[in-house]
Amino acid sequence: MTAFRRPTNIRDILCKTCPLTSSTSPFKWYTNGRVFSITLNLSCHSHNIIDLITCTKRSKQYIGKTKKNSFRTRFTTHRFDLNNDRGTCVAKHFNLDGHTHQHFNIITIDQLPGSDNISLLNKDNHSIHTFGTTGPHGMNIKELQ
Ligand SMILES: [Zn+2]
Ligand SMILES: [Zn+2]
After folding, report:
1. What are the helix and strand counts (H, E) for the chain?
2. Which of 40, 54, 81, 90 would bridge 105 by S-S if both were Cys, CB 3.0 to 4.6 A apart?
3. Ligand nearest 59 Cα, by number?
4. DSSP labels for 47-82?
5. Can you give the pTM of this predicted structure?
6. Cα(42) to centroid of ligand 1, in Å?
7. pLDDT at site 103
8. Residue 60: beta bridge partners?
9. Considering every ligand atom, which ligand is closest to the CA of 104?
10. How far is the CA of 3 from the centre of ligand 2 (A)?
């Protein structure tokens, strides 16, 4: 778990995306019921983020990552995909009947130390293995390669 500190500025205080990156409240993996506590000090400008999307309606979860993109860009992309039903596994899920934006919850759960693609992918796969978000219990359709 890497903490990356950057000075807080007015822009970040007003930002609606930054708070999503600095959650200190515990979160639950629904596949095994375990509760994890994380402490990250990130902003929406942080890169190399592992994020966790939870559907609060069906308790399904999706792990993803950013590489060169900042978390803000990733968040915007997710919202665009959802609004336009772009066919990603996340967009498909949240366009199911009975879902609204209110069921979409995203938090950052880790930041990787570098931008090395291999370690990033390994880390992401590791998270998916550990937490089992593939298959019927999660939204990750297949493991990332
Ligand atoms: Zn921000
Ligand atoms: Zn759902």
Report:
1. 4, 5
2. 54
3. 2
4. -SEEEEEEETTTTEEEEEE-SSS-HHHHHHHHHHHH
5. 0.76
6. 9
7. 92
8. 55
9. 2
10. 31
Residue 29 CA, ligand 1 centroid: distance in Å: 26
Largest CA distance in the chain: 43
Nearest ligand to the CA atom of 70: 1
The end-to-end CA distance of the chain, in Å, is 23
CA–centroid distance, 10 to ligand 2, in Å, is 35
Residues by chain with Cβ below 5 Å of ion ligand 2: 55, 57-58
Taking the centre of ligand 1 as the mean of its atom positions, its distance from the CA of residue 100, in whole angstroms, is 24
Residue where the block lists tokens 């929406």? 44
- Which ligand does the CA of 15 lie closest to? 1
Ordered domains of the chain (ranges, CATH):
10-137 (3.40.1440.10)
Q: Which of 77, 78, 109 is nearest to 93 (CA)?
A: 78
pLDDT tens profile 59-112: 888 888 877 789 999 999 999 999 999 988 889 999 999 998 889 988 888 877
Asked if 63 and 71 count as a contact pair (C-beta separation under 8 A), the reply is no
Look up residue 53 and give its two tokens: 């999307």
